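question for whoever is on the cluster today: can someone run the full assembly for these? two chains, 570 residues total. i dont have access anymore since they changed the login thing
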Amino acid sequence: MTDTTAQPDGELQAVRSATSQRRWRTGAVVLGWVGFIVIWELLSRIIGEVLLPGAFKVGGEMWDIVRSGLFVEHFLASIGKVALGFVWAVLFGAPIGFLMGRSRYWKAFFKDTVLVAGSIPGLAYAVMALVIFGISLWGPVLSVALISMPYIAINVAEGLEGVDRKFLQMSQAYGRKPRDVYRHVLIPAILPFVFAGVRVSFAISWKVEQLTEVFGSNKGVGFQIRSAFQRFSVTEVLAWVLLFIAFMLLVERVILVRAERRLFRWRTGGQD
Amino acid sequence: MTATSPHVTRVGSGNRIRRALTSPGGARLTSYVALLGAWFLLAMIEERVPSPPAVAEFLWIELTGGSHGGVLKGEWVEHILVTMERFGLGLLIALVSGVALGIIIGSSRYFYALLNDTLLVFLALPAVIWAFITVIWFGIGWRAPVWTVVLAGAPFVAVNVSHGVQAIGSDLRLMSDSFGVPLAKRIRHLILPAVTGYIFAGFRFAVIIGWNGVLLAEWFGAAEGVGWRTRYWYDANRYQGFVGWILLFIVIIVALDRLVLTPLQRRAFRWRDLGSEAIEFQEALTEETLLPSDEHRS
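^ ran it for u. tokens below:
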């Protein structure tokens, strides 16, 4: 149960025990996946293939979807809408956050809206987008933009408040024009926070994007999930959503995190 | 937070109206008016969007039980009650199972390695998938909404609780080991007091996510309830009814969150250094709230 099986008996032993611990943990991770799949298969046998298709059946379906090229087509459609939504979210959210961070008036102005927006159910965004745009590309884009905007605004506002006041005072003391202050102090300071806002809201935004596609769309992963539901095919619902999750986690964990680290390496003094 | 920030303070020119308008309260009021104005504008541009007066009129009829024309009567109490029953039951199950799972995952590195990936998959599954699957499993009725809340909410409780258990200092755990404290006592006196705040934070996410889930499950597979009623008006092409119910379910969750959960949570964390405003900002908007706690029960 405890974390300290290593005895302070010398470096070599410590290293050895650390290695064996790591091996143990890797083993546990692998075992976790195997266990997950075995339990899933067992449940499927007990409940029945129709209600809960087994892991291998769903896996086969996933392979079919990928091989037929359907996945690439619809995944690209979905992620395109997510990306477009983020463009709008940054275009509106960053200035709002900027105002909130710089002026007490605008902070009070936007605060309620931004806080409430965080607890509105995704369903509300999805169906509102449907009412406004009908079945179109812009519904999902709007819901992504609306759901991620508060995160970006909050991040930028907090980031601005954290800008070292010495820089601002120094700029003033040296008689820098406001334009220069914005360009060289404030905007570089908030960019990482814009990015962090995007990364934090990414997990929520793709879910809402997909939900909006469920309600009204003729292309995209959400549309496929809806069609599968209408055929009462649990296999297809699971196959589509698992593929979608896998790729979205990949985008989130690998691409966004790496890009962030790389873009803003200068901030940490190149430590990593 | 506000004291150190580079705010631009506007000093009124002695004009009281102007000062009132630029005060924080005035700013809030202006923002509400602006939102309402934006809605009016949207309703004018887009035919499908009902105007605020139309929605207000609908809500008046619906809430007072008047007639929508013909035999169609306004009704809301029974829908909100039935949804709340499903929501409450689902949350209770999610809370209990999430706490148990979180304690298991957090209490040992090997359980963590064993179960964490599975938990991540469950965290990533959107609520609508659970709504679809449970509707296929259980058909139309109360079970699909309840299980959607459980399946969508429990992982969020579990992940928070497991972080809370991991945050317990290893010195305390080591000491319990050395003195041979039995497991039951350890859970009661060490783990539970340390994780109550985390349970609370996880529960709050479960509430927000579960609310979305219960509405979705009712939308796709129920014959009564808030989600069903919203869909009813959508299918009837009466967008003022549809928007009215969306407003109602937003008001319910925001009131629950702002008036019940946030004050309770702030109370639970009042010993902490952060100002209440900073907590609000963080709590409202981070996915995983990982905060230590004192002994406050959700």
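summary bc i know u wont read the tokens: Chain A touches chain B through 70 residues (CB under 8 Å). The mean pLDDT of chain A is 83.
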